[in-house]
Amino acid sequence: MLSWEIERAIDYYKLPLIVAYTGHDYMLDPSAQSGRWPVTLHQRINNGSAMAIHIPFKKDAMFNAIGRFTVNGEEIGGSLITYTREAQAGWGYIR
Fold first, then answer.
1. Bridge partners for 56 per DSSP
2. How far from 73 is each of 30, 69, 88, CA to CA, in Å?
3. Handedness of CA 72, 75, 79, 83 (dihedral sign)
4. 3-state secondary structure string, the chain?
5. What is the widest separation between alpha-carbon atoms in the chain?
6. pLDDT tens string 18-54
7. Residue (of 14, 21, 91, 92) closest to 51 by Cα position
8. CA quadruple 47, 65, 83, 23: dihedral sign
9. Other beta carbons less than 10 A from residue 1's beta carbon
10. Tens digit of pLDDT for each residue in 48-73?
11. Within 13 Å, how many C-alpha atoms sit on residue 77's CB side?
């Protein structure tokens, strides 16, 4: 079911994705997590059709992403986007 949802979200509805990772204090290299991606997400990240920001599963990053990257909000601008080191440090994720 998740594969179908990813296909519909990206291919049909052109929705931006917020990919949140548990077990991480910060996220600077999402490609290192590619082994965790479902095949449909992996394909769309690799071919550039997924507009995705990759974040740690943390409150500040999640609220910021949800508030910014909506259908009518800011464009994410790529498949492997993260918040800057400075932004994540500002939230206390990186010391």
1. 21
2. 22, 5, 21
3. negative
4. CHHHHHHHHHHHCCCCEEEEECCCCCCCCHHHHHHHCCHHHHHHHHCCCCCEEEEECCHHHHHHHHHHCCCCCCCCCCCCECCCHHHHHHCCCCC
5. 40
6. 999 999 999 999 999 999 999 999 999 999 999 999 9
7. 14
8. negative
9. 5
10. 999 999 999 999 999 999 999 988 89
11. 5
Q: Tell me which residue has tokens 């965790």.
A: 36
Give the amino acid at 45: I
Return d(Cα 46, Cα 67) in angstroms, integer. Answer: 26
CB atoms within 10 A of CB 29: 10
What's the pTM value of the predicted model, to 2 decimals?
0.94
* pLDDT band at 1; cut points 50, 70, 90: confident
Residues 80 and 34: their CA atoms lie apart, in Å, by 10
CA 16 to chain centre: 8
